């Protein structure tokens, strides 16, 4: 069953040029992000993601890819309420908290 849009709803036109411009900006940021990753990677042993709702679910994908390509890193993902209610995970100078 397809939902019916509310009366008067007019969908926005797709702006392909804007999409390409946004993607180009993202591509331009990649070298800096990769340099940061190379700088930080030797100094961390674990990553802790801490977020609510949709951001927490998005971090599930990040957790998967980190575990797939960096099998030596310990990766944890928490909702804030879980984080404060549980015994604290091991956090030290070699932990990256996002």
List the helices and strands and how they pair.
Elements: H1 16-40, E1 46-50, H2 53-69, E2 74-78, H3 80-85, E3 95-97
Parallel strand pairs: 1-2, 1-3
Mean pLDDT across all amino acids: 90
Task: Report the end-to-end length measured between terminal Cα atoms.
Answer: 39 Å
Strand order, main sheet: write it out: 2-1-3
Query: Count of helical segments?
Result: 3
Order of helices and strands: HEHEHE
What is the CA-based Rg, rounded? 19 Å
Shape: flat
Contiguous uncertain segments of 5+ residues: none
Strand runs, count: 3
**Beta-sheet strand percentage?**
5-15%
Task: Explain this structure.
This protein has about 100 residues and is an alpha/beta fold. The protein is about 50% helix and about 15% strand. It is built from three helices and three strands, in the order αβαβαβ. It has helices at about 15-40, 55-70, 80-85; strands at about 45-50, 75-80, 95. A three-stranded parallel beta sheet has the order 2-1-3. α2 (about 55-70) links the parallel β1 and β2 (about 75-80). It is flat and about 55 Å long. The model has no long low-confidence stretch (mean pLDDT about 90).
In short:
The protein is of the alpha/beta class and 98 residues long. The protein has 3 helices and 3 strands, in the order H-E-H-E-H-E.
């Amino acid at each position: 069953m397809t939902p019916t849009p509310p009366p008067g709803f007019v969908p926005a036109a797709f702006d392909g040029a804007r999409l390409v411009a946004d993607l180009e900006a993202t591509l331009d940021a990649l070298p800096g992000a990769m340099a940061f990753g190379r700088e930080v990677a030797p100094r961390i042993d674990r990553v802790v993601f801490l977020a609510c709702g949709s951001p927490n679910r998005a971090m599930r994908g990040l957790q998967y890819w980190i575990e797939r390509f960096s099998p030596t890193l310990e990766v944890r993902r928490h909702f804030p309420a879980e984080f404060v209610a549980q015994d604290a995970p091991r956090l030290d100078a070699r932990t990256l908290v996002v």
